[in-house]
């Protein structure tokens, strides 16, 4: 897996991701403390609103940002967004009203909605070999999991010697360092795209997504993952402190169990994907998550909860890490950024629904009812995946083009009835019926 870091461009991008993630983790801790300072007992409502703003920005702005990215140089686009994020964070220590926090969070997440899909779309252009790309996806997943463990500990250590606003300066430094690392990376040139209408480019990723069977299945799988994952992210603190009667350190241990399971899966995935197709691995991961959530009513102690959260974390990594491989084989190089943006927006739309659902049901009907309801939603999602994503998922498909004139270059190259790797594009606006 580490051999992928021999590629200097990926090494720089990976380092950029790490420092940005650490900075983001510090900001998460500092934002919670800022909310407490501004709102006291209403800090939870402030953070919940900030989270909703984050999700709305992701869902609505990612496709727009992808269309803008297609018209700008890659390096300049990524560096500009890193610097925007650093600038927004630099203002947070000086706010004195909750409304100011909401405005800054919106601009911060708007920049992230542009940066993340654009960054994801660069990696397969840097690492053309699928094994290298799979290793890179596992490394990036490990980095995200490690951030969840390291950043809170780093924040706790810093808070012993500095006040919490200084944590925001660490975030600013992280984003600036990320920008510098992107500047020094030799990014491959973007594939030349056909000139198109801006709003057509905004919706292009969604159109490709909804017309490709494996991507439709992936979209529904994200709903199943979000249903199960929301139980972990929203209700862990209630499970530990209300049901089990334990303290804050036990909450951290439960989340650590989730992260450890995810990291273990990321280590094992490259070998697993050498032997198995993406579809059964990802469906198996979603099934582990749903089964784990369904067992929540039986949890009676911290050790059992940590083990269950580790199982769900393992399944989470199995479903999320291979997504880049699926998108890579489902879109032309010129369309990849738009499809990554569509994935980013659609997946966060699922979380935007399941986050409040987990909280409302848990508060109104109890944690056991919440767990079983979310597990049922997840199970329905998996059933839909089995129907939407064909088990025999062929890339090369026989088809013809009755709408094209006989002398069209595509028919001249391939013949009237032919077979080749199919993706949705201007010549293939619908998935071939033969599939």
From TrEMBL:
This protein's name: MFS transporter
Chief place of localization: membrane
Keywords in alphabetical order: Cell membrane, Membrane, Transmembrane, Transmembrane helix
TM spans (from-to): 12-39, 45-69, 154-183, 217-239, 251-269, 281-300, 306-327, 339-361, 367-389
Record organism: Gemmobacter denitrificans
Topology relative to the membrane: Multi-pass membrane protein
Gene3D superfamilies per UniProt: MFS general substrate transporter like domains
Subcellular location: Cell membrane
